[in-house]
Known about the structure:
elongated, 11 helices, single chain, two-stranded antiparallel sheet, 3 domains
Amino acid sequence: MAAQGNGLQTQIPKLLGRNYYHWHIQMRVLLESQDLWGIFETGCSDLLANATEAVTIEHRENQRRDKKALHILFQASSEPVFDRIATSSSSKDAWDILQKAYKWEQRVQRVKLQTLRCEFDIIRMTEKETIEEYFNKITTIVNKLQMNEEKIEEQKIIEKILRTLTRKFESVVVAIEESKDVTTMSTEELMGILQSHELRLKQYDAQPIDQAFQVQNLNSNSDLNRNRGFRNFRGRGRGKGRIFYSNREIKCYNCQKIGHISRLCAMKNNDEHRDNILMHENDEDNEENETMF
């Protein structure tokens, strides 16, 4: 824990080895807040023999700040990491040892840079990703490149994002390129514009689904009413809730005329009467034939 001037205690991040990238950023901010970062850059020079009293006082103050910074580094190191800097006499020496141990050598750094450059070149937004998720991926790669002393201009980042968005953002990309100055735009401004367009697209996608459910409910209700009316028409007896149709809506299936049903059709009754007479005559002929035999 590092004490601040206002009495608050600051949590010191622990260096475990693999987290050097994030630890390095947190430690630098912490040391700058304690006014100790200058010691890591310049170190504490030796005192000359013929130094004046003012120089001597300044040298003692620098030594005190150097030991304070070294103590913070000791607290911020895990046991395996502490073994590397246990014999360091100054904070600058301990910082340089950690930087060489975990910030890769020159050759390893070149390989790492090539890998990060390839990742930055081939990265593209997928259909399932949101604008925020894609910006986070871009930001992570850019921060790693800058950590390895690779400077990327913000204009290049914006052009990369506009070039690798999905097809549904094509209209807003054209509008940005025609109405905005990409050279003066920030990534935060671009992210806000794209997120607004993304939210509008989600609203448009949700409306057809609601309309489809409404149409389906209307169709199901109409089918239900049609079936219910048909059952009420075919049912017998008198009861509440039954639906009766007028004669203009009824069509006979026997004579194909409108105004009555097939059960009450006169042509059907005549046909049945004629069939009964023929059947009766046939029965009498059969009886006479049997008697003659």
